[in-house]
Amino acid sequence: MPEHQDPQEHQHQPEDSTPPLTLEEKVDLLAAALDATHQELEDSKAQVRGLSEDITRLLAHPDFQPQSWLAVEEVEQAKQMLEDLLPWLKTHFLPFQDGRDALRECWMHHPDVIEVLLALKAAHGDAMRGRGWGTQAMTYFWVYRTQTIEGIRNLMGPCDLSMHETPAQPVEAVGRSAIDHVAERWVATRTMPAPTAGEHAEARELTARLLSRPL
To answer: Is residue 13 part of a domain?
Structure first.
């Protein structure tokens, strides 16, 4: 008797109906791959340029630190920070209507505003270079920049130059006299102690200073 055969062996095996690529299609695919490789190479070059700029800056200033107007101690450094900020404002901030509306003429008399503008300038520089800069730029425009402008509005309010004729008195955070008391209580019990007499005295002094400041 003939051996039993699996009926599936006699079923017609479907043939691959995909036509082979033409020479022109192969060339197009190769060209697309080369374009992608070229874009990756350009992105890598941009990253290398960015790193080169950072290295050059670090070599020129080994003690380079992020810029903070609130922490600057050298007059020349403070002047340079403002001189670098002005052209950036002209080119990248003030062309936008909301930027012009928020930044009043007395902005340079507001240390907090200078601080956030320096940070925004740095964020802009980070966003506009390297691979994925488009996504980074959109995050900058619609998150960092938008929220900073809203913050500047809140910080400045309706202020103008006439409100800065009387120099503001420096203000320190209340609490220096209570540091030991608060730290010991917190570490020991994870609870906060009642305010000390020193804190109340500091608070009264702070209130007096704030009332003497221009609005």
So the answer is: no
Q: Cβ(69)–Cβ(111) under 8 Å?
A: yes
Same domain, 122 and 195: no
pLDDT tens sequence across 174-202: 677 788 888 888 899 988 888 888 888 88
Instruction: Give the number of domains in the chain.
Output: 3
Q: Is residue 123 part of a domain?
A: yes
SS3 for the chain, per residue? CCCCCCHHHHCCCCCCCCCCCCHHHHHHHHHHHHHHHHHHHHHHHHHHHHHHHHHHHHHHCCCCCCCCCCCCCCHHHHHHHHHHHHHHHHHHHCCCHHHHHHCCCCHHHCHHHHHHHHHHHHHHHHHCCCCCHHHHHHHHHHHHHHHHHHHHHHHHCCCCHHHHCCCCCCCCCCCHHHHHHHHHHHHHHCCCCCCCHHHHHHHHHHHHHHHHCCC
Same domain, 185 and 154: no
Q: What is the pLDDT of residues 45-92, one digit of tens each?
A: 777 776 676 666 555 555 556 789 998 888 999 999 999 999 999 999
In a domain, 17, yes or no: no
Q: Which domain does 149 fall in, by range?
A: 75-162
Amino acid of residue 162: S
pTM for the full model?
0.61
pLDDT > 80? residue 4: no
